[in-house]
Structure formats: structure tokens, C-alpha cells
Specification:
- This protein is mostly beta strands and 186 residues long.
- The protein folds into two domains: 70 residues, no CATH class; 94 residues.
- 10% of the residues lie in helices and 32% in strands.
- The protein has three helices and twelve strands.
Length: 186
């Protein structure tokens, strides 16, 4: 199927949608992942997930001409993000939970729902690509989101496990976490 000139909204709602390319590069024909943000930003990736490697043929400008990759040409190797401990997630906009922004997520590999706390609001205006690296022993995880609506970049947030941090002050938690040398964005 060829999409030309019509807004293409690939659905990243299943685990397979993060592992099976949904398009072909319009320049070289390689299987790639095409993503279009809710406001129209477009990009081709070699694979999804951190570090979000863009396909080199189309870094200058992603076009809306893509074709579905036949099943016989789907990727069989394990993506880098799987080896690095990331899992694709389906998220909704954050909501306030006390002094925190709470982000509800569905882990697409297991179908379970989890929540994450952050001091940063996450606004979702439709389908997005997002990956989550699970909580460590201190209850600290990482959320990585493709944010083409903000200067064509990815956004990485340190997130916290609600059962450990929901009753605490974000200011006190931020000082403790940052003094331990962990990523700054809670």
C-alpha cells in the first residue's frame, strides 16, 4: 500500500509495531520505521528506541511516500533497545498526583499497566513513540519519547516509582537523586 500526500499515522500500539518495520525508505528501499507526529513532523528510523537512530537517506526531510514492508522482509535480529533493557509503552497525557505529574503507561511486551512520576508534564496529542527502561533498585526509571513537535528531537525523562515517591516532595527527592549523580530530569 502506498501513502502519498495523505497524513500517515502509523499506530505504535503493539509490541510488533516496534519490531517490524512499517515502511520502505523512499531513497534506498531499505525497511525502516516511519513516524509522523500528531502535528505533522515526520521521520524515518533504522530502528525504534534509544538512541532513536534516524535513517541516513532521509535525515534532511522525511517524505510521506512509504510502502508497507512485506512479511517476508521483516527484521529478525534483536533490536538494540531490547538488548539495552528498554520496552515500548503506550502512554496517555500525564495527570497531577499530589505534587507530581503521574504518567500512566501500558508495557506493550507484557500488556501490564504501570505508572511513573515526574516533575515534568507530558502532553500527548495523539499517537506517540515511547520507550521505558524499568525501575532500578532505587525506584528510578527512564522514559524516552519521540517529540517531533519540539524541534525534531527525542525527550528523555527520569521517572520515579509511585509506591516509593508519591508521598515525598519533588524538591527533596530531586536534591537527593541529583546529588547521587543520576540524570537531572525528574
Amino acid at each position: 500500500m502506498i501513502y502519498q500526500g495523505t497524513p500517515l499515522r502509523p499506530a505504535f500500539r503493539t509490541f510488533d509495531s516496534y519490531t517490524i518495520p512499517n515502511a520502505r525508505c523512499p531513497v534506498c528501499g531499505a525497511p525502516v520505521f516511519f513516524y509522523q507526529s500528531p502535528t505533522g513532523g515526520r521521520v524515518f528510523f533504522d530502528e525504534l528506541g534509544p538512541p532513536w537512530p534516524k535513517h541516513p537517506c532521509t535525515i534532511a526531510a522525511a517524505t510521506a511516500i512509504t510502502t508497507r514492508v512485506p512479511t517476508s522482509q521483516q527484521r529478525t535480529s534483536m533490536p538494540t533497545w531490547v538488548r539495552s533493557g528498554w520496552t515500548p509503552v503506550l502512554i496517555q497525557s500525564s495527570r497531577m498526583k499530589g505534587a507530581w505529574h503521574c504518567i500512566p503507561m501500558q508495557l506493550l511486551d507484557r500488556g501490564i499497566h504501570v505508572e511513573a512520576l515526574t516533575t515534568n508534564p507530558v502532553a500527548v496529542r495523539g499517537q506517540i513513540c515511547a520507550m521505558f527502561r524499568s525501575y532500578d533498585a532505587d525506584g528510578v526509571g527512564i522514559l524516552s519519547i519521540v517529540d517531533l513537535d519540539a524541534l525534531d528531537r527525542t525527550r528523555t525523562l527520569m521517572v520515579l516509582e509511585p509506591r516509593r515517591y508519591a508521598g515525598r516532595s519533588p524538591f527533596a527527592v530531586g536534591r537527593r537523586v541529583n546529588s547521587g549523580g543520576t540524570a537531572a530530569d525528574i
